[in-house]
Design a protein that fits this description.
The complex is a heterodimer of chains A (269) and B (107). With 269 residues, chain A is α+β, with helices and mostly antiparallel strands. Chain A has six helices and five strands; from the N terminus they run αααβββββααα. Chain A folds into two domains: 128 residues, Up-down Bundle (Four Helix Bundle (Hemerythrin (Met), subunit A)); 70 residues, no CATH class. In chain A, strands 4-3-2-1-5 form a five-stranded antiparallel β-sheet. In chain A, helix 1 runs parallel beside helix 6 and helix 3 packs antiparallel against helix 4. Chain B has a domain of 69 residues. Chain B is flat and about 65 Å long. The chains are: A alpha+beta (269), B mainly alpha (107). Chains A and B meet through helix 1, helix 2 and helix 6 of A and helix 1, helix 2 and helix 3 of B.
Chain lengths: 269, 107
């Protein structure tokens, strides 16, 4: 059975079916991300004064990822244009670039996640620094480190602060030079990394960027499929293959569009 | 005729993409510069400016890379509905931020 309107436009819509389908899907995606952006606005506006973090994310890495995604959107468009002019070799080159750029983006994102997951805030309950907070990246935990049994020590590359609010706006009060600090488990009142449960900022940060990264991953799989196995359809039905590239490209551009708003909202404001 | 139905010249697309990338580079730099500048008190004005620049960036991607400037009427109709619902969603959000029931706001 032949699937209708994979190449020719339907007379009533003026579009081939997959194109209308992807635009309807993208409309639903706008509402999905819109709901999460709405949650971000509520959390940010509802945060107590001085308790919304600023400067917690690495702007340089965010900028690099922005440019990587912009470049990948361009190579996706050029891959489609190469199909249009029937140059399969150039299509392979441009889509290969898209895959590499996407994987680099995901690699940088993973590095950023790891940085947050090994970053700890420790409330000190007793000892010389009782009442203070230690903040920094994990260097090592001693072999016998156990928070419940209160044994062993943990070493951070970080600093002590008197009040948690000093950790919120790193733009206004840049962190002093970090040092290696070792804390005994017996002195720790609470120890928590900067994972999703740390506060509402990290929760919405991991949710928004995690969902976006899943979209990048899914899009990369689709693009890889066309790149690796598209040759067969290209030989038998190049016009239909070109339409498939256009549809996957529209999805990829949408993912870039979402990042265009995620970057300033999370990294710059 | 939508953009995807027009005859294509790879060279013209490479030129277009080069222009788009340079503008994206400039707008991204402008957003970062605004973020680290001392415009206004607090974050309100800076956030508004940064989001305005992001909208320019998004227009470039949607308009030129997604060919939205020369699409079929049906796609505009679908997107018009999306915009209405998105504005409704954000409108409800803004409305909610000013309407904590008594005794539920933490500050």
């Amino acid at each position: 059975m032949e699937i209708p309107y994979t190449i020719a436009a339907r007379p009533d819509t003026g579009l081939y079916n997959a194109k209308l389908g992807i635009w309807l899907f993208l409309a639903s995606e706008v509402m999905l991300f819109g709901g999460l952006f709405s949650a971000y606005v509520l959390l940010r506006v509802g945060a107590e004064p001085g308790l919304w973090p600023h400067g917690w994310l690495n702007v340089t890495l965010g900028t690099v990822n922005t440019l990587l995604l912009a470049l990948s959107a361009i190579t996706t468009l050029l891959a489609w244009a190469a199909c249009k002019v029937r140059e399969f070799g150039k299509f392979k080159f441009f889509h290969g670039c898209t895959i590499l750029l996407a994987l680099t983006f995901l690699g940088i994102k993973s590095y950023e996640y790891r940085d947050k997951l090994i970053h700890y805030e420790i409330a000190i309950g007793s000892g010389k620094y009782a009442g203070k907070f230690a903040d920094g990246h994990l260097v090592e935990k001693s072999a016998d480190f156990d928070l419940v049994k209160k044994t062993g020590t943990v070493t951070l590359h970080g600093r002590y602060v008197d009040d948690r609010t000093e950790l919120m706006d790193l733009r206004a009060t840049p962190a002093e030079k970090p040092d290696e600090i070792t804390i005994a488990a017996a002195d720790i009142k609470k120890m928590e990394n900067y994972g999703p449960k740390h506060n509402t900022f990290t929760a919405i940060y991991f949710t928004l960027t995690g969902l976006h990264a899943l979209h990048i991953f899914g899009g990369t799989l689709v693009i890889f499929y066309f790149w690796a196995f598209g040759g067969a359809m290209w030989k038998t039905d190049p016009e239909r293959f070109t339409n498939r590239i256009e549809v996957s490209g529209l999805f990829w551009h949408f993912v870039d569009l979402v990042w265009i708003f995620l970057f300033p909202v999370l990294y710059l404001t | 005729m939508s953009e995807s139905e027009k005859p294509v010249s790879l060279q013209s697309y490479i030129r277009l993409c080069a222009v788009v990338f340079v503008v994206v580079l400039c707008t991204t730099s402008a957003m970062i510069a605004t973020s680290f500048s001392h415009i206004g008190e607090g974050w309100t004005l800076k956030v508004a400016l940064i989001l305005a620049i992001a909208v320019v960036n998004a227009f470039l991607v949607a308009g030129y890379l997604m060919h939205l400037l020369s699409e079929k009427k049906l796609i505009y109709t679908v997107l018009a509905f999306t915009v209405v619902f998105f504005i409704g969603l954000m409108g409800l959000t803004v409305w909610a931020t000013n309407g904590f029931p008594p005794g539920t706001a933490s500050h």
